[in-house]
Amino acid sequence: MEKAIKRYFPIFALPTMAAFLIGFILPFALGIYLSFCEFTTVTDAKFVGMKNYARILGDDTFLHSLWFTALFTVVTVVVINLLAFTIAMLLTKGIRGTNVFRTVFFMPNLIGGIVLGYIWQLILNGILAYFGRTLTYSGTYGFWGLVILLSWQQVGYMMIIYIAGIQNVPGDLIEAAKIDGATPAQILKKVTIPMVMPSITICTFLTLTNSFKLFDQNLALTAGEPSNSSEMLALNIYNTFYGRVGWEGVGQAKAVIFFILVAAIALGQNWLTRRKEVQQ
Question: Does residue 280 have a pLDDT over 60?
Fold first, then answer.
């Protein structure tokens, strides 16, 4: 059987590798090259060195969107994971109708980002109208609108992952802790959380990357208004590339920086939480 797998491995692997090369590696390499060029189309690219990256440093909208995105990511990672873990703990206590609750909490994750953005735009603007405000009144309103939207969408998905982790905690271990006189808070801190660290790693990774590269919801909810004050990094790159004539190369350079940031954050978070798992 093993010999047969080795013999036919290229037949199954080569199409996938070819698709990956054509659909990802080559466009990615071309994108890096174009970040050092001035161009309107791929065929008229002119190499200009680090000029595009230098222009980014003078672009206040990019720097603002970077800090806006960083703050948004920190807030949503904390809020989503706390809510998801709390709900998961409640739904593993044998409450009647648990399966219904799980389904209801998970359903928002099935709605597309653009549709979800317009739905919450109507809801939140309807509420704010009583106070003479809208989501685009200031960047603060847009920020918390995005936090509410993404939390509502992601909590159910993370909850399912946490439920799977909590259900894998040995009941005998919890019973032993109770017999030793541990309080519920001590059991949570010393038993449940350490045993659920793999789920925490996964959920933190997903919420971190999903928050940092948010685009659809930002475009639909506020479109970066007012005056780009609620514009996140992905939307800023989009607006630079398609909305500013002569800035195509700068937009491409921003995309490269964006990729590096997301990769560094994701790898760093994964390393830290994996290290925590080993220590536990």
Answer: no
